[in-house]
Amino acid sequence: MVGDWDGDGRDTLGVRRGAQYHLKDVIAPGPADRVVVYGRAGDTTLVGDWDGDGVDTLGVRRDPVPLAVEGLRGSGGLTSTEIPTAASGRLTTVAGAVPAPRSAAREVTVRVQVEAGLPVDGATFADVAMDTLNDRRGWGADGSVSFARGTTGQMTLVLASPATVDRLCAPLRTNGYTSCRTGSQVIINAARWAGGATAFNAAGGDIAAYRQYVVNHETGHFLGHGHVGCPGAGRLAPVMQQQTLSMGGCRPNGWPHP
């Protein structure tokens, strides 16, 4: 979703017709992968690689507005950017099992759960999260850990509404905003998954980088790592810095071993 990308008060869309991209009502062309046009209600829309994960992000305009991101990999599993403050409170385990991609000193099996009532495709969310955990820049870069996925596991990765995050994380105060790790649960705030965090975004971070950060940061707590501060203005933030709350002059980073 691009929203009001060119600042004229209207949502900005790119239109795809089949395998071809077409311009319509061109207002202000942007970078080559983000053609700026206006579409009609119901148009399938192209927004280019909006979240930086190497996959085009698509959406469809619903009357009257907004543009709702469909459940594609580039959306991180979201089927809408409208995240309710509270959903059902019931966690649903994403079906399926995926082996760890490589051998390591420690193998952690992850159960992925999504709160029922959230506009999220659970399988896509699970894929994006597991890709992050097993990335070569992740916690297993030194061969210490690799992550498998199953319906039971040593770690449970949860995507939940702000109200459910507050309940599951208590007595830690997440204030409807942050995520947490409690015991074997890594709990991700769906509102942050959808829109990132103010401090992180303002420092130049994008949605894909924030998703990588929040999964790796909270998993870092599960693995026994504590918080650290910014090492100096202009430097890359350590993944265990609380980048959701403040960048402290550092640059956004989602990886333990960037």
UniProtKB/TrEMBL annotation:
One Pfam family per UniProt = DUF3152
Any idea where the DUF3152 domain is?
82-247
Q: Which InterPro entries match?
A: DUF3152
Domain of life, source organism: Bacteria
Q: What is this protein called?
A: DUF3152 domain-containing protein
Q: Which organism is it from?
A: Georgenia subflava
